[in-house]
Amino acid sequence: MKANMSEAVHSHQDPPEVSPPVQYDRMLVALHWLLAMGLIAQLGLGLWMDDLPKEPVGYRAQWFNLHKSIGICLGLLILWRLGWRITHSVPASVNLPGTWQDKLSTLTHRAMYLCMLLMPLSGFLGSNFSPYPVKFFGVALPRWFAPDPDLKSLLSEVHELTATLFMALVALHFAAVLWHVLVKRDGLLQRMTWGRAHHD
Asked: Can you say how many angstroms the Cα of residue 32 is from the centroid of all Cα atoms in its chain?
């Protein structure tokens, strides 16, 4: 009788909670570093090519088309990363829940994702409103919209503003990583590598 009661009690207990992983999975780590290098290179290219002379036209257009082609690739990678992030478990925050550090970290990461989505989207749509075709590594893509100088100008401003905001967020993110690595030494960086992360 006691055995039956014990089995009944255990059968109604909630299943044990699954602990979050110690570090990010290999796919997310690969996407993180691939996007980090790609976005930094893309931002550098964007800043550099803005100062290119408008004559001769072909030389400037060549770099702008490369920037757009890379932007399309990065936009697709960003969507892949966001989808993977949503559908897979990730490590718990190293910050104490509810603290200002935890809230700032969450806000920063969400803002970075928003910028990573808006930058390629505004760039692609803005290019579609220009009188010139969008070329993907030399191949002209179908035009989505008729040329519209006003919308082109608006989307170009959004593109530049989100790029500027993203650079500021990257600087804040990098400063936070240095704080965790040099001061707190809590193994945060190891979670975003292919090595083995430690935990207490």
From this structure: 7
